[in-house]
Amino acid sequence: MRGRLGELEAAVMDVLWSDAAPCRVRDVRTRLAPTRPLAYTTVMTVLDNLHRKGWVRRELQGRAYLYTPAATREEETARALRDLLDEAGDPETVLQHFARSVSARESAVLRAALAGPDRA
After folding, report:
1. DSSP string, the chain
2. Angle at which helices 73-87 and 91-101 pack, to 10 degrees?
3. How many CB atoms lie within 10 A of CB 22?
4. Residue 16: Cβ-neighbour burial (10 angstroms; 0-12, 13-18, 19+)
5. pTM
6. How far is it, in rounded angstroms, from Cα 101 to Cα 107?
7. Is 120:114 a contact under the CB 8 Å cutoff?
8. Which residues on adjacent β-strands are paired with residue 58?
9. What residues have CB less than 8 Å from 32, skipping those under 6 apart?
10. CB-side exposure of 86: number of CA atoms within 13 Å?
11. pLDDT tens, N- to C-terminus, the chain (120 residues)
12. Cα–Cα distance for residue pair 72/82, rounded to 1 Å
C-alpha cells in the first residue's frame, strides 16, 4: 500500500496532475505560490519524498529533474478505494451501502465496467 498523502503532498500532486507537461521544482513552486508561498527547498523535498514513495517519476534534464505523476488521479483514487475496502471489516456490506448511494449515471458506468470485455 502506497499510503495516503499529506496536505502539502496532495497540493503538489494536484499541480502535477493538472499540468500536461513534466514539471521542474520551480514550476511546481510557481504554481503553488499564489496560495502557498513555499521555499524552493521545501517543494524539492516534497517532490523527492513523493518520488521515494512511488507517486512521481523523475528524469534528469540538465541539472534539474522533471517530475511527472506515476499514475493518473483516477488510478490513484481507485487504489485508495481498493485500500479502504481491504481495510474494511466487512467489504461486502460497504459495497452494498455504496451501491445504494450512487446516482443512476454512476450505476450505469459500474454496470458497463463489470460487463466489459476485460473483466475476468
Report:
1. ---PPPHHHHHHHHHHHH-SS-B-HHHHHHHHTTT----HHHHHHHHHHHHHHTSEEEEEETTEEEEEESS-HHHHHHHHHHHHHHHSS-HHHHHHHHHHHS-HHHHHHHHHHHHSTT--
2. 130
3. 17
4. buried
5. 0.80
6. 9
7. no
8. 67
9. 11, 12, 15, 38, 43
10. 7
11. 356 899 999 999 999 999 889 999 999 999 999 999 999 999 999 999 999 999 999 999 999 999 999 999 999 999 988 988 989 888 899 889 988 999 999 989 889 988 887 765
12. 15
- Distance between CA 29 and CA 38 in Å, rounded? 7
- C-alpha cell belonging to residue 99: 451501491
As given in the structure block, the three cell numbers for residue 9 are: 503532498
Can you read off the three cell numbers belonging to residue 117? Answer: 470485455
Single-letter amino acid, residue 77: T
CA distance linking residue 88 with residue 77, whole number of Å: 17
